[in-house]
Amino acid sequence: MDSNDAPLGYDAFRRTCPSHTVLEMLASKWVYLTVCALRRGRMRNGELARKLEGITPKMLTQTLRVLERDGLVRREVYPVIPPRVEYELTELGQNLAGLLSQIRSWAEEHAPDIKDARARASANRQDDMAVLP
Amino acid sequence: MDSNDAPLGYDAFRRTCPSHTVLEMLASKWVYLTVCALRRGRMRNGELARKLEGITPKMLTQTLRVLERDGLVRREVYPVIPPRVEYELTELGQNLAGLLSQIRSWAEEHAPDIKDARARASANRQDDMAVLP
DNA sequence: GTCATTACTATCCATAAGGTGCCTATATAT
DNA sequence: ATATATAGGCACCTTATGGATAGTAATGAC
Quick one: B68 exposed, middle or buried, by C-beta within 10 A (0-12, 13-18, 19+)? Predict the structure, then answer.
């Protein structure tokens, strides 16, 4: 059994395994970014909306609801006017945030490499075109 | 500057940053699983199709093309009959595979926690229902 | 009275993701 | 002659996702 095999009967490669659905949930750029943003500490909806450039209110709410449902984020409502709601990572969420931050760092570090690779790929497609009559 | 700030001008929180598009590319369960599967070593299309339970041939091809375009996977074609094509991680891909494997392990380890959280969440919704007329 | 604030909800719509089925090539085996 | 194996491509269709837009509540400021 190597590190590609499941440790305790859970195997993300199997469609029906609970861990597979967890992976599905994590496979969203807004989940990544929201969890990373909350690493700093609790934030309000508006703060998150400003931090997560380009997110729509709908997506933000939807993402936070999923994270809350799955026990990664805690939502605290202050019964005041105007409304005040704060979000923070649970312990489980903080645990995950470390990993997701590494992915984010990786993306930032290797963005140039991937940009180059994409440029080469599209250049090759140009070449293919060039040899056609 | 804390670990949530970008190190070299790259910032995945910014919509137009190249690292944001990298994150978008990574945010796919099939990308996760394909890269994890290739960690063992080079594999043929058919092997991958069997390993990635539930993937359609179309999605498999599409995922491999994206990974190849972005320089994470190398595709080698043997000009034989019947066709033989092998895929393997590039150095960049292997670099990433370590991180993605950690995510996969996390998903497998914490699948029970998240299952519980989901169960609690839906139980609470039931409660909400119960107090309605 | 009405405007701003805040954190949402509720719609609608365009796009994208994903699924299905059929097609290609050719050497070997039956 | 027909079937099999392999790695796709291509066209079509349905569903899901994301985005845009507008609306809600309750209060204090003006």
Answer: middle
